[in-house]
Amino acid sequence: MLNHYDQMLDLTLDTQIKEEKDGYYAFEDTVFYGEKGGMLADQGTINGLKVLDLKWKGDKLYHKVDGKLSNPIHLQVDAYTRILNTTIQSALHLLDGFYDQRGLHIEAFGVAPEHQWYEVNSKEVDEAHLEAVQIFMNEALLTDIPTSFDYYKGSDYPDPDYAHHEEVRVVSFGEINRQPCATVHVNSTGQIGSFVVLGAEKTARGTRVLISVGYASAELLKKDEKILKNLWQTLKVPKNELPAAVEKLLDSNKSYKKQLEVMKKELLTYKAQELAKLNELFLPDLVEVADLRAIAQILLNQVQQTKILLVADDKVTHFALLSPDGQARTLFAALQEKLAAKGGGSPKLVTGLAPASKEELMTFLEDILH
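Now predict its structure.
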């Protein structure tokens, strides 16, 4: 285990190249942490070159940079990213302690700064529960509990699942939580900075609690503030009047939607009336596919003879079979057998489609009807 990971702000190191393979470098020592154990990878530079990738092979970390490296090597981890990634890890340990006390456990978690969350194996998470989490975390940060790191031989560690490890590192936050972990952690809980419960949503396994930790909270606040600013500037209202303005806009939208529905129904009725004036049996490509069934239903009440609407669409033809004398299903059955048509409806109206051209459908149906 690299003891550099016991110090969150151990960010610089001078070292030597140990191995180079396929553009990746391993060093005699490193302060970089590659993504593993639920923690995101560090960012930074090596000899001034940007680190592009970090990957583990066993316990050895390989580094890829934007260029070639030669000794001596100077490693520089980006402090902002290190703190951003570390604080959520330590916060999750504290949350493990919170739920251990209640006989519950965290099933899964997300550590991306823009979307931090954990999933607890209980659906009984209400506002009182979330408030208890917030109070617990506030107290843990305020008391600034020191972090301790203890090392054991894998064979000596009491949990047999770790016996195959050469070394086991145990991370402790006072009496709150103690567990094996290889990731970087804060050196005391106060370094987490801030913890905010944003809300919760039910899942198949329990409840997902949305949170924001440390620097991520500041980023989230800036992002949300930008969205709000764009919104109130677009609506041309003061910030404090934004909720009322949005509610008014939603009400207006509902009203406009109803008006559009009425107007569309009137338009379809007019279209059906125009079609009813035509004497032809087949009415090809006179309506949109999306309006086919609606217009056919209106048209059915305005005609006394069979009408067939057809709309060609790529390699298929959509159809509506209108039969005031109740023969629509008979015609459809013939189309099913001959042209593998699909659809359904009533004896007077069937809509569907067939993998054929409208000319093929018209020829076939004309033979049946005449």
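Residues 1 and 59 are 8 Å apart (CA to CA).
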